Sequence to fold (331 residues):
Amino acid sequence: MRRAKISIIGAGNTGAACAVWAASKELGDIVLIDIADGVAKGKALDLYQSAPIERFDCNIQGGSDYSLIEGSEIVVITAGIPRKPGMSRDDLIKTNMGIVSSVAEKVAQFAPEAVIIVLSNPLDAMVYTAWKASGFPAHRVLGQAGCLDVARFRAFLSMELGCSVEDIQALLLGGHGDDMVPLPRFTSVHGIPIDQLLSKEKIDACVQRAKVGGGEIVQLMGTSAYYAPASGVIQMAEAIIKDKKRILPCAAYCEQEYNVAPGAKGDGYFVGVPCVLGKGGMEKIVEAKLDASESALLAESVQHVKDLVAVVKKLAAEKNEQGAVMFPKLV
Ligand code: APR
Fold:
């Protein structure tokens, strides 16, 4: 049987961590692409040399040549600059928009049937950029944010409760990180609603820590997190490759769903929502019934995503006015 192929663009901290998690799960053959040819080649070789010890069978190749990604089922985009202390994710928009746009065009050229999973920040705006630049149908473009945000929330709840992370279920919606929408009403521990086990103050503290969880790590390390974000990517990739129909929170294309942009007519937004993931990528958005305060929080978060996308559109229009035709499919 032919093995699946996962290509990862950007062989830095997050890209390399994606490769390690994918290899450890033996998800398929792995390709690492980076503008730094030697870095991608070196990391691929280094990881492959762990195979006899870790006992995984997959080919791992690296380099700057995009023809390596041909035939990929999944292409993960991690290329871009990460945050430094004092920066918000939004501060990365100008640089990363140019990088993600050029990478997505290459993906469309060399792996036209792939499902794209974007990790570069600011996430919700970069997924939109990848969608426009690749020209892919929206169900084959996704962003990883929710899997990480939920994992962070579950990790903090488990520290508070002293129970296994495995027994905690949670749901979050909206944009990535600071303005995500936590839903304690949909959070449970082995089926027991979380508010029966923790006070509101303690739940709120876990929510707050999850929201700024990325910033906490940037402060500690001087750069963005990578193990857990990469883990979120590979959770999505596994669901797609194995056609598992898992319901995972992803940045997915929405119009009328969750009332994100009811009149969008083909130019909607990518927002964190629970999705069924299978062979085709995003197969369905699952709509939970929200109460008035949850809906208001989501509307606020969606507005932030729209503001970021407006910046993307403005930058693209400016570039085109200057005759650069850098992001031709964005405007
Ligand atoms: N094509 C391919 N690779 C590129 C390009 C490009 N046009 N531009 C930059 N890169 C590569 C860099 O050479 C580097 O190896 O992207 C890699 C980024 O790696 P890191 O600097 O280690 O950053 P990382 O921590 O992986 O974060 C990447 O993901 O989580 C987000 O906020 C984070 O936007 C950031 C992105």
